Amino acid sequence: MPKIKTSRAAAKRYNVTAGGKIKIKKSHARHILTKKSRKRKRRLREAGYLSGANVRTVKRLVPYK
After folding, report:
1. Residue 1: predicted pLDDT
2. pLDDT tens digit string along 52-63?
3. Does 46 reside within a domain?
4. Does any domain span residue 12?
5. 62 within 8 A of 16, measured Cβ to Cβ
6. What is the pLDDT of residue 35?
7. Is 16 among the domain residues?
8. For residue 3, is it within any domain?
9. Residue-number span of the structural domain to which 38 is assigned
10. Cα distance between residue 62 and residue 15, in whole Å
11. Quick one: which of 50, 56, 51 has its CA closest to 14?
12. Which of 26, 2, 27, 20 is nearest to 65 (CA)?
């Protein structure tokens, strides 16, 4: 059986935890930060986890991670 190609774009965006969850970086933390509250910016620094609806898609894009 041939190997599946990893999507390089997806590989840079997602990490798979030991438990099989997909870890992501939260969006909206790059620019226009002056109008965002301190609390909101602090929460954006935390790791996020992908919702169950998208896990299957991402695992196909990053099969060996």
Report:
1. 85
2. 899 999 999 999
3. yes
4. yes
5. yes
6. 97
7. yes
8. no
9. 8-61
10. 9
11. 50
12. 20
Taking Cα atoms as reference points, which of 12, 18, 14 lies closest to residue 57? 14
State the CATH number of the domain containing residue 20: 4.10.410.60
- Write down the pLDDT at residue 65: 85
**pLDDT tens, 3-38?**
999 999 999 999 999 999 999 999 999 999 999 999
Pairing state between β 22-25 and 15-16: antiparallel
Give the whole-angstrom CA distance, residue 56 versus residue 30.
27
Contacts of 9 (CB under 8 A, 6+ apart): none
Query: Of the candidates 12, 24, 25, which has an alpha carbon nearest to the alpha carbon of residue 55?
Result: 24
Count structural domains, the chain. Answer: 1
Rounded distance between C-alpha atoms, residue 14 and residue 53, angstroms: 15
- How far apart are the two ends of the chain, measured CA to CA in Å? 19
